[in-house]
C-alpha cells in the first residue's frame, strides 16, 4: 500500500517501525481509534489507526488519498495478524537463544569451578597470611616442589576442563553460525582421535579403564575444530558412564565413501525410552539420572548435530549382554561415527 507506515511499541520501547523520525511523536501521542486528520507538515490529509495490544500499541497511517476506511481496516488487520505470528516466532527464538546462553553459562561456570577447586586443593590462597603475600611466588614454588605428583595431576585436570570450556564456547558458535565457521580439510582420522583422547587419559586411569585403539591410515574430510568438540564431548560422557576396570575398544573400517569409527564400551544400559529420545536436546538417560550423573542432556544432541554439519553421522547400537554392577545395569554398547573419506596424498 502506497505511503503506508507502521509503528509498534512494546513495554515503552519501539519494537518495529518504518515511521520517519519526525512522525514518531505523533504516533505516541495519538489517541486510540481510527481518524482522518490534516497533516500540517505535509499539507495533506492522513488516515491513521491506533490500537492496544498486549504490552503495547500498534499505529498505522497512510497519506494515500485513495485509501478508504474499509481498505485501510483490511490492511491494518492483516498487519496485526502478521505481527501476532511474527511475535510468537520471535518469542520462541528468544526463548531458545536464552536457553542456549544460560546452558552455555552454566556449563562454562561448572568447568571453571572445577578448575578453581583443583587449584585451591593444590595451593590454598586463603591460607597464605597477609604478611606473606610478597613471598607468594616462593610459597607456591615450594608447594609444587613438595607435591610434584599432585601438581601433575592438577595440571592434567585443569587442561581437560579448560579444553571443555573451549569446546562449550565452540559448540555454541557452531550451532548459532555453522555456515560461516566450518572449514573442511583432509586430516588423518587416527591422529585426530588420539589427540582428542589426551585430555581424558587421567580420567580413564582413575577409573582403571584401558583404551585400545586400532590402526587406521585413512584420511577424512572434516572441520577439525568441530570434530574435536564432538570427540571431546563423547570421551567426557564415556568417562562418566563406563563401568570401572573396563576396556574401551576403538576400531576403524572403510565403507564406500565413509570412514567408520566404532567405539565399544561397557557403559550404562540404554533403555527403550533412552533410545527413542537420546538425540533430543535436554534429554538425560534413565540410569544416568538414577546415579545423579546426568548433566544438561546435550551430549548426544551436540554429537549428532555436529557430525551432521560435518556431512557425516553418528549412531548407537545397544548391547544385549546386560550385567549388574552394584545394582546398576550395564551393557557393551557400540557407538559409530561416520566420516566422509578424503582421497589423495598430502
Would you kindly provide a written description of the structure presented here, covering whatever features stand out?
This protein has 346 residues and is of the alpha+beta class. The chain has ten helices and 13 strands. The strands form two sheets. Strands 6, 7, 8, 9, 10, 11, 12 and 13 form an eight-stranded mixed beta sheet that branches. Helix 4 (148-181) crosses helix 10 (299-309), helix 5 (189-197) crosses helix 7 (224-241) and helix 7 (224-241) packs antiparallel against helix 10. The longest helix is centred in the first third of the chain and has 54 residues, at 69-122. The chain is elongated. The relative contact order is 0.08. The mean pLDDT is 85.
Order of helices and strands: EEHEEEHHHEHHEEHEEHHHEEE
Rg measurement, Å: 30 Å
The pLDDT mean sits at 85
Number of helices: 10
Residue stretches low in confidence (pLDDT < 50, at least 5 long) are none
Name the helicity range: 40-55%
Which descriptor suits the 3D outline?
Answer: elongated
Strand content: 25-35%
Q: Using DSSP, what is the number of strands? A: 13
C-alpha termini separation: 60 Å
Structural class: alpha+beta
Largest sheet: 8 strands, mixed
Amino acid at each position: 500500500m502506497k505511503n503506508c507506515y507502521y509503528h509498534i511499541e512494546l513495554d515503552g520501547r519501539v519494537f518495529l517501525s518504518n515511521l520517519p523520525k519526525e512522525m514518531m511523536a505523533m504516533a505516541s501521542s495519538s489517541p486510540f481509534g481510527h481518524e482522518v486528520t490534516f497533516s500540517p507538515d505535509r499539507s495533506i490529509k492522513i488516515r491513521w489507526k491506533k490500537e492496544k495490544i498486549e504490552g503495547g500499541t500498534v499505529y498505522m497511517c497512510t497519506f494515500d488519498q485513495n485509501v478508504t476506511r474499509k481498505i485501510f481496516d483490511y490492511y491494518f488487520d492483516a498487519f496485526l495478524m502478521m505481527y501476532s505470528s511474527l511475535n510468537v516466532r520471535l518469542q520462541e527464538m528468544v526463548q531458545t537463544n536464552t536457553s542456549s546462553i544460560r546452558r552455555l553459562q552454566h556449563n562454562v561456570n561448572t568447568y571453571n569451578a572445577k578448575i578453581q577447586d583443583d587449584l585451591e586443593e593444590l595451593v590454598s590462597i586463603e591460607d597464605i597470611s597477609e604478611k606473606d603475600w610478597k613471598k607468594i611466588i616462593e610459597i607456591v614454588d615450594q608447594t609444587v616442589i613438595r607435591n610434584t605428583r599432585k601438581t601433575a595431576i592438577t595440571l592434567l585436570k585443569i587442561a581437560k576442563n579448560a579444553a571443555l570450556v573451549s569446546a562449550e564456547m565452540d559448540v555454541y558458535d557452531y550451532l548459532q553460525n555453522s555456515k560461516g565457521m566450518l572449514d573442511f580439510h583432509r586430516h588423518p582420522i587416527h591422529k585426530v582421535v588420539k589427540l582428542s583422547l589426551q585430555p581424558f587419559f587421567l580420567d580413564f586411569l582413575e577409573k582403571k579403564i584401558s583404551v585400545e585403539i586400532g590402526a587406521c591410515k585413512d584420511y577424512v574430510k572434516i572441520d577439525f575444530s568441530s570434530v574435536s568438540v564432538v570427540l571431546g564431548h563423547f570421551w567426557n560422557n564415556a568417562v562418566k558412564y563406563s563401568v570401572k576396570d573396563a576396556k574401551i575398544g576403538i576400531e576403524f573400517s572403510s565403507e564406500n565413501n565413509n570412514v567408520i569409527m566404532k567405539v565399544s564400551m561397557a557403559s550404562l544400559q540404554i533403555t527403550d525410552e533412552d533410545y527413542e529420545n537420546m538425540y533430543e536436546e535436554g534429554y538425560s538417560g534413565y540410569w544416568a539420572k538414577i546415579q545423579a550423573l546426568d548433566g544438561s542432556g546435550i551430549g548426544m544432541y551436540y554429537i549428532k548435530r555436529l557430525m551432521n554439519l560435518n556431512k557425516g553421522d553418528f549412531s548407537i547400537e545397544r548391547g544385549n549382554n546386560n550385567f549388574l554392577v552394584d545394582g546398576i545395569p550395564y551393557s557393551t554398547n557400540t557407538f559409530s561415527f561416520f566420516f566422509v573419506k578424503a582421497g589423495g596424498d598430502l
